[in-house]
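HOLO CASE FILE
Compound: pyridoxal-5'-phosphate
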Amino acid sequence: MGNGGLSIMDVNELKNILKKFNTVEIGNYPTPLQRIKNFEENNNLNNIYIKRDDLSENPGGNKTRHLKYLLGDAINNNYEIFIISGPIQSNFCTQAAMICKKINFPCILVHNAEEPTEYIGNNLLNHLMEAEQIFVGEISFQETEEKVVELGERLKSQGKNPYIFHTDHSKAIASLGYIDCVIEIVEQCEKENKHIEDIFVPVGNGIFAAGVLYGNALLGQPFNIQLVSVEFNKEGVHNRIKKNVELIEELTNIKIEYSLDEILNIYDDYMGEGWGCPTEESIKVIKELAETEGIFLEKVYTSKGFYGMKDLLKRNIVRSKGACYIHSGGFPSLFTQY
Ligand SMILES: Cc1ncc(COP(=O)(O)O)c(C=O)c1O
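Model generated. Tokens follow.
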């Protein structure tokens, strides 16, 4: 696969590369690319778009694109159970459970939390779906990963073949979904006569952002990618993206033409005290977007990223004639945040 070398290609060539990877038929793609004129007027801005990945499923979000490739990989390589871990309100866990229900693929969610006594947000959806959940108590991310590996070993000793998200291979596979997203935006700009120069992405561990950056680089940089951190400082984001891009390069056997320093724009001024800690401005922008456009952000990821875009554009730090925010979902967790 690939040519083992450096490469810039057109959309069709990139689509052909992606065809070599297995997917499952989930998600409503392309997701809409919507202009938010009321928000523009409110802020004296022009040409602002939202890529509605939050509408990819019900509930949707960035994880649907990841799962499209992850479950394709799992099914076509004879894995039998999908295992994923995360906090009790994890968007990834809920979307994994939901999509696995649709395609009849067994799925286990491992939560680093005590078993809840009330059902709200994503945890309510998990409950309604009768998702198989294991609660390992309030332990660290690292300890949870160890529990997941132990669970995997236990299942293997019972003759089952589990696919565990969080291996390097699975991270690279997950990122492929966001190459699709860049292709969609390029095609939508052409077909719908929209002009976009900058794409803004909220960044945690950077699996989502790495796919966007990589896809954009293979297409010869049609957009500038602006990364707004919700959790880690610049160096932390840089290291995560570097690792994730390398993993994708290994998977596809195609290296990007650019050095990361050339294409990485990272902003760590919007993350407040870190993961799960909103800022005064990010809370305000949830109300603003709801009031002006009827679009809902949430407190952990999407509002920090969106506020970052608004501020960078208003202060002309990013000078853009067309900006697009990728809305990565998280709607159910909003109900736990007020
Ligand atoms: C709604 C939402 N947006 C953005 C992200 C960030 O994705 P990543 O960790 O790949 O940077 C997440 C991760 O869980 C998420 O749930």
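CASE NOTES: The chain has two domains: 11-61+175-334, 80-160. The longest helix spans residues 168-191.
CLOSED: yes
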